[in-house]
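TICKET: design request
STATUS: open
ATTACHED STRUCTURE:
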């Protein structure tokens, strides 16, 4: 009985993984794991067609997240249906892998702190690789990631790795009323980090926080500052 359940669970996870790999291949013509961000556009592709193509597949599509050298290379959605993407893939299939998502009231990249949630899957997909940031050397080697938004690749650098209890919500603050409030947020996040930051972000920078489960009652949070735009 246990063996049958294990096989069924594996097949369920595998189905989601294959769906995302196919999406990645179709959209970016690129492998799911890479050492560089997927190319933003093919030479003959009209400027807005990829964004519109993703919106056509799923109107909840917001932007794309890619961390070179990891398995994190996925679309991110925002849905008015609370909890829907905890157990539905980007293509709308019911599956425990879900989809990376932001809450309905969370600002999009470029404004405040954009918090992205994703599952810590046992098969190594979705946000499973976030737990590897517990290792300081891994953090140093994977401190850069990219967000495809507003027709450009945005470069982001990680400045804080935290492990918190699920009831501790300080790192999920999304909006700041002034620069002083934002500066205090930076100080608190750096002080809470399990590793020394490789750099200190500016109050002018927008933030992105990646969050996933860690154990039964914990959360691992990887926070980055969006630094610049890459050319397409």
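STATUS: resolved
RESOLUTION: sequence designed for all positions
ATTACHED SEQUENCE:
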């Amino acid at each position: 009985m246990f063996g049958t359940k294990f096989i069924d669970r594996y097949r369920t996870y595998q189905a989601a993984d294959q769906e995302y790999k196919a999406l990645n291949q179709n959209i970016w013509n690129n492998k799911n794991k890479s050492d560089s961000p997927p190319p933003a556009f093919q030479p003959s592709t009209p400027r807005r067609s990829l964004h519109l193509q993703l919106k056509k597949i799923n109107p909840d599509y917001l932007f794309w997240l890619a961390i070179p050298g990891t398995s994190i290379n996925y679309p991110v959605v925002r849905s008015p249906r609370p909890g829907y993407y905890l157990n539905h893939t980007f293509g709308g299939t019911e599956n425990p892998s879900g989809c990376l998502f932001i809450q309905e009231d969370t600002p999009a990249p470029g404004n405040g702190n954009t918090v992205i949630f994703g599952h810590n899957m046992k098969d190594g997909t979705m946000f499973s690789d976030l737990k590897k940031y517990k290792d300081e050397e891994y953090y140093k080697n994977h401190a850069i990631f990219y967000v495809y938004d507003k027709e450009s690749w945005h470069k982001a650098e990680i400045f804080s790795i935290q492990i918190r209890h699920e009831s501790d919500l300080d790192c999920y603050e999304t909006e700041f009323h002034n620069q002083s409030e934002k500066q205090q947020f930076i100080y608190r996040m750096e002080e809470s980090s399990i590793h020394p930051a490789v750099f200190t972000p500016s109050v002018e920078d927008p933030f992105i926080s990646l969050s996933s489960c860690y154990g039964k009652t914990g959360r691992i949070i990887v926070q980055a500052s969006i630094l610049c735009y890459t050319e397409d």
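CLOSING REMARK: The first strand starts at residue 61 and ends at 66. The longest helix spans residues 2-28.
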